[in-house]
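does this look right to u?? pyridoxal-5'-phosphate version
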Amino acid sequence: MSPIAANLQAVRERIRIAAHGAADSVKLVAVSKTHPPGAVRAAYDAGQRAFGENYVQEAVAKMPALADLAIEWHFIGPIQSNKAKLIALHFAWAHGVDRLKVAEALSRNRNPAGPPLNVCLQVNVSGEASKSGANPADAPGLARAISALANIRLRGLMTIIENVPDAGSQRAQFRALRELGERIAASGIALDTLSMGMTQDFEAAIAEGATLVRIGTAIFGQRENKVVES
Ligand SMILES: *Cc1c(COP(=O)(O)O)cnc(C)c1O
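got this back:
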């Protein structure tokens, strides 16, 4: 078994335990940013189908070498309007939508003849100035406006929490996102996704109801080089 296949198996097992056996309710997105196409292929050969990238140019450069695979691509990085076209063209999901302007650009650039682009509204629950994401107070109004757009489908909320080591503080932040999602759903907007949890906190996220976890390091190993986008 390849190291990536072994890591994937270990991550799936941890998800199963965290979900108390209900692992089918948690989708695993393998975050392959900075890793070469060969690493994606190794994970694919081990049964993984959903992959996450957060640098547009890097992802689009990687895709041709993997065109023979039935990959579901997730864009998980922050979205600038000038990248919306490439994202709308090449991805099935976009998780980092935090402004109406970006959602409109994705909608405008998505082919109406194909499936809608699945999107998550990114919310900054920790309130850290360095984090992207909408203010929680603005999220209900944004969700309503985004859900009215053509060619994209609002699936739920996404967050990246403050980097804290203890599970209690992690859970409090994930709980805040879940409760926000419940309030938005109660207002009549159908949501089925809570995109939350990464290598160091995914068990806490699952305990608070994550339906989608985005995991890179635990599958592919440490990232050595950070790609900088122009
Ligand atoms: C890089 C990244 C991940 C994965 O992080 P790991 O700590 O490697 O699991 C998840 N979500 C987003 C938005 C990321 O940028």
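Residues 31, 33, 54, 76-77, 160, 198-200, 214-217 surround pyridoxal-5'-phosphate (CB under 6 Å). idk if thats expected tbh
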